[in-house]
């Protein structure tokens, strides 16, 4: 069980990590000491919330909710900046659109400690605690972004996950290693157990090999039972074997493409069998430069995913056009893998040359998806 | 100087290289005619070697607006005017088209692609201003295929590195609902079917919001959901008279195309509403079904936030029939012990080869088939 970090640690860290905020236009400059007192106020409230809700404030949760990505990605300055601006303008919220906030405080929402503490500070009217808003501006950004596509101006509308929120499920990993360093990095430091045992399964391997001899495709199509050859449609023989169940495209230059295997070894075995068939047909086939060109894997994270939210926060990597395709296309940079993410929670990973790339890509995407789990 | 050619005027070979205000010129020393103005050419040095330079290799392309680009820009403006977009949109769309045209891949593309590109530029402009234009609408206007449109759209977004926001659902609802011809009585629309625009709009918006919250919108085309929501909103505003009207008939008298998935969206939306109704005591006793719940949509929408929370408390939406099972560890895949270097038995390979007899039979059959095909009208 996570306990709130000792208050005295945090201000130092924050002071170290984040540069002092520039003076917001509408209020006076907050000194560092003032901020520390506000922080302690907030943390006291958090401690009081401990028995109400999971004592994990998003601020210190390594499994960063999507809100934190906004916070990390954007300049921490702005986060600090918007706090006093929002809170200190003595109740004048005209410049701030709060319609994303729920009208009723929910018990299930894991962001609750922050929200309820915020409500409390509102009620206590003017026991201002900018730090309590620290995670919220990030949500606000999302809220504002989403608000532009929000559907009505009803106050309580747009916290996308609000209605489907549950108690954090037991699968919530042992991320209680409150690594405060996780505040800054873009990719959270997640232990392997983060993925709670979901391993992507390989579905298809594409490999190529050079048989190093010119082939007579007509002869191959004539003498092999499992071959089809239609030169008008495609200039290669399509050959299939039953074990491992694969298909090969054999070109007259002697190059061959083998598809359909479920593992690298199976792909290699299948390619060797095709080479053996070609050998038996009388060609001096060899087995040169066997190379895996592409690996496709798939898995299921077992919770629905808010694709609209994901495309907003990871816009530079994602492409989501529901009019064209139901899934979100996420082009991960490191490793260079393309992921198709669907609302049901199924994920397809492709473009890998190595098995480890698929696993690494899934480990990178899983915490991001967890942030959009609206359950 | 010898070897430099002759002066075209006097025919002398005495050509001198001189410079006129730092521009080198080849001048005839007899008559003073300027033969060439040094390196001032619009093309590469090839021209100095008297070889013709193709237009695509010259810089003329970058300096002039080609006819095909002019045509494209005119099409962009026309499209903006047809769609009655604000004038600023026109300039933005034109700028995007020009920007795209600078890429050689676009310049050399087929006319069909350039035509679709016009639509893409207009669409991107509208999206960036939250103007609710669907891809289907653009494709209809351009007589283009949606697949062709989609490939070019994705390509151009990547090429120009643009950030295109998603379709604004609220605006789309307003525009789409306003296109329903139900707000005035007419020969085809009886009085009891006429509805007030504002009431219908607000209720449709609420229903679409509800659909969005309960996972009916993510991953799906937005329009059928809005059609279903409009229908339900219209029905619920006067259920006594309108329950008898079907979705297809509704779209027909409203003069709007019925998108195919709209009926399944309608069923899904009704299922969500039924689940919400279960949470209200006075509705639970009524034992509502898909038709009778329509009468209570007003009440359900009024309390939708708490009802949705209560109804979907276990975290899964109605349509996701995952149940309450705790997330279990994925079972390990069957471990394959293939190493890739096993011995391959001859018999296994031979099963894939034809025996000589089979080969002969096959060849005979092929020859017969060829003969049959070469005779156009076999007796």
From TrEMBL, chain A:
Main location: nucleus
Annotated InterPro entries: TBP (IPR000814), TBP_CS (IPR030491), TBP_dom_sf (IPR012295), TBP_eukaryotic (IPR033710)
Record-level Gene Ontology MF annotations: DNA binding
PROSITE patterns for the chain: TFIID
CDD domains, sorted: TBP_eukaryotes
Record's GO cellular component terms: nucleus
Region of interest called Disordered, as start-end residue ranges on this chain: 1-24, 102-184
Bias kind Basic and acidic residues: ranges: 1-11, 107-122
Keyword set includes Transcription: yes
Cell location: Nucleus
Bias (Low complexity): 126-159
Polar residues: compositionally biased ranges: 175-184
Gene3D superfamilies from the UniProt entry: TATA-Binding Protein (3.30.310.10)
Organism superkingdom: Eukaryota
GO process terms (BP): DNA-templated transcription initiation
Pfam families linked: TBP
Keyword Transcription: yes
HAMAP family per the UniProt record, alphabetical: TATA_bind_prot_arch
Similarity comment: Belongs to the TBP family.
The protein, known as: TATA-box binding protein like 2
Lineage: Eukaryota, Metazoa, Chordata, Craniata, Vertebrata
From TrEMBL, chain B:
Residue ranges occupied by any TFIIB-type domain in the UniProt entry: 2-36
GO molecular function: TBP-class protein binding; zinc ion binding
Pfam families, A to Z: BRF2-like_C_cyclin_rpt, Zn_Ribbon_TF
Keyword terms: Activator, Metal-binding, Nucleus, Repeat, Transcription, Transcription regulation, Zinc, Zinc-finger
SUPFAM superfamilies: Cyclin-like (SSF47954), Zinc beta-ribbon (SSF57783)
Compartment(s): Nucleus
GO aspect biological process, one term: transcription preinitiation complex assembly
Coiled-coil regions listed in the entry: none
One Gene Ontology cellular component annotation held by this UniProt entry: nucleus
PROSITE patterns, per the entry: ZF_TFIIB
PANTHER family: TRANSCRIPTION FACTOR IIIB 50 KDA SUBUNIT, TRANSCRIPTION INITIATION FACTOR IIB-RELATED
Similarity-based family: Belongs to the TFIIB family.
Quaternary data: Component of TFIIIB complexes. The TFIIIB complex has two activities, alpha and beta. The TFIIIB-alpha activity complex is composed of TBP, BDP1, and a complex containing both BRF2 and at least four stably associated proteins; this complex inhibits the transcription by pol III via its phosphorylation by CK2; YY1 facilitates the TFIIIB-alpha complex formation. Interacts with TBP; this interaction promotes recruitment of BRF2 to TATA box-containing promoters.
The protein's role, per its UniProt record: General activator of RNA polymerase III transcription. Factor exclusively required for RNA polymerase III transcription of genes with promoter elements upstream of the initiation sites. Contributes to the regulation of gene expression; functions as activator in the absence of oxidative stress. Down-regulates expression of target genes in response to oxidative stress. Overexpression protects cells against apoptosis in response to oxidative stress.
The protein's name in its UniProt record: Transcription factor IIIB 50 kDa subunit
Organism of this sequence: Colobus angolensis palliatus
Source taxonomy: Eukaryota, Metazoa, Chordata, Craniata, Vertebrata
